[in-house]
Amino acid sequence: MRCTLGVDIGTASSKGVLVDVDGEILATATRAHEVSRPHTGWVEMDGLVWWDEFVAIARELIAAVPEAEIGGVGVSGMGPCILLVDDDDVPVRPAILYGVDTRAHVQIEQMTAQIGAEEIARVGGSLLSSQAGGPKLVWVAEEEPEAWARARRLFMPASWLARRLTGAYLLDHQSASQVSPLYDIEGERWHEPWWARYAGSIEQPPLRWAGDVAGTVTPDAASATGIPEGTPVITGTIDAWTEAVSVGAHEVGDLMLMYGTTMFLVATGEETLRTPSMWTTAGAFAGTRNLAGGLSTSGALTSWLKDLTGADYPQLLADAEESGPGARGLLMLPYFAGERTPIQDADARGVVAGLTLGHTRGDLYRAALEATALGVRHNVETMRAAGADIGRVVAVGGGTQGRLWMQIVSDATGLVQDVPETTIGASYGAAFLAATATATAATGAPVIADWNPVAEKIHPDETLRARYDALFDRYLRLYEGSKDVVHELAAEQKKEAA
Fold first, then answer.
1. Which UniProt keywords apply (predicted)?
2. DSSP designation for 101
3. Which of 250, 362, 425, 486 is most exposed, with minimal Cβ within 10 Å?
């Protein structure tokens, strides 16, 4: 039985699927892990764990379906991450993660002053922020010169897996476009002058598209994983983009809304749209561009409340349902780990306004769900103001298992959300890309709408429109009104942690 294997390295876990030619999931495997936060604003992870978990997942999937014939391997992972390795492919330090890691704020200011914000946006598409990979490279060079002196190659989770499986050194265009400002978005190539200036000692990874075949499984990788030698492996890309593929939300006019540890939004179009507060990137496929955004907390916030209250998710959801729209007069800002888009404020912090002695954990949980929904609305309105034509919204990710959360997002934003049959996420998208890359004339290329049809549509409750319009106005004003005090508190937190 011909199958494809897909593995995604996420923030909280690595997930794998084994899928047949019709898209049916035959087996799944997961390995939970934790990121490291050694200092305020730092979020990193041992890159060797990514390979160890891939090996364990691959062996578990193969053992679960002994009759499977692996025809291709798909890889995916969180990003943009910065994993630097030496000549022998040994990491010189832990990988620095995506926009939730805010350590490079000084380098962002320096590079912006050196190059100029207008020129950075012209070449790379986006202004520099905590999401940009370039300043994190410079941070390593300036703050850890011994590690930088040994660094020779740059990887992200997907490209690291491709390297370990095939020996190929490469990076996909989408991931490269987030190593801002080192990628020329219109030319779809590395920007040589800035690469030489800021990353000159690092060997440039050749660029491919996400679904391109990177190479085939080597004898050593076959021995480690149980995947047959010679099996094709795709290049892969960042998980949010692979998730968009998994639900067919990568066509022009689509918006993918990913409910996960963080919330991520990817709008796909043909034009390069630029706006200071969002991320302009190359698409996963040639000829497409994305305007993307992300909340720094979403599932992480609900998880924090679960741990804080000691209640489980079903109980908290029931309590939040009982609380009702508006959380009985509570309003929360979800900036518990700073915020990415659209405010781009690493020193933002969580705020809960309106608390009384009569409020319950259900009110707090409802306020948290509404806070993330209002954050989504803020992003969508910013995207549309920049020219994004959003015709269809597709929900994906672990958070789609909770109907209440999706309903609140639709109510707060006015968006209709398509919920596909399979919402397992990026590992499924990686398996689809592998199936597409290795399709034969006899089988034909798979179609994601056949693999993963829409199972449900979430419609907004129009009777709540005025209520959420008013709440959104307060949400925006609460941030502006509390920003100065919150920044002072953030400075104190940094002093305490130093």
1. Carbohydrate metabolism, Kinase, Transferase, Xylose metabolism
2. -
3. 486
Q: Is residue 449 part of a domain?
A: no
pLDDT in tens, the chain (498 residues): 999 999 999 999 999 999 999 999 999 999 999 999 999 889 999 999 999 999 999 999 999 999 999 999 999 999 999 999 999 999 999 999 998 899 999 999 999 999 999 999 999 999 999 999 999 999 999 999 999 999 999 999 999 999 999 999 999 999 999 999 999 999 999 999 999 999 999 999 999 999 999 999 999 999 999 999 999 999 999 998 999 999 999 889 999 998 988 898 999 999 999 998 999 999 999 989 999 999 999 999 999 999 999 999 999 999 999 999 999 999 999 999 999 999 999 899 999 999 999 999 999 999 999 999 999 999 999 999 999 999 999 998 888 887 999 999 999 999 999 999 998 889 999 999 999 999 987 778 999 999 999 999 999 999 999 999 999 999 999 999 999 999 999 999 988 877
Residue 451 lies in a domain: no
Domain boundary among 240, 268, 294: 240
| Whether residues 38 and 143 fall in one domain | yes
Tell me if residue 323 falls in helix, strand or coil.
helix
My answer on whether 45 and 114 are in the same domain is yes
- Positive or negative, the Cα torsion across 80, 86, 91, 94? negative
State the maximum Cα–Cα separation within the chain, in Å, rounded to a whole number: 67
Q: What is the span of the domain harbouring residue 345?
A: 248-421+461-498
Cα–Cα distance, 195 to 154 (Å, whole number)? 12
Q: Is the pTM of this model over 0.90?
A: no
Buried b (16+ CB within 10 A) or exposed e, 91-110: bbbbbbbbbbbbbbbebbee
Q: Which of 213, 240, 267 is the last residue of a domain?
A: 240
| 219 lies in the same domain as 268 | no
Helix pair angle (361-385, 313-323), 10° resolution: 80
452 φ/ψ angles, rounded to the nearest 5 degrees: -140, 75
Cα distances (Å, whole numbers) of residue 136 to 96, 106, 301: 7, 10, 25
Classified as helix, coil or strand, 148 is: helix
| 377 and 471 assigned to the same domain | yes
Please indicate, yes or no, whether residues 185 and 313 belong to a single structural domain of this protein.
no
Same domain, residue pair 411 and 483: yes
Q: Is residue 429 in a domain?
A: no
SS3 content of the chain, % helix, strand, coil (to 5): 40, 20, 35
In DSSP notation, 352-401 reads EES--TT--HHHHHHHHHHHHHHHHHHHHHHHHHTT----EEEEESGGGG
Q: Is residue 231 part of a domain?
A: yes
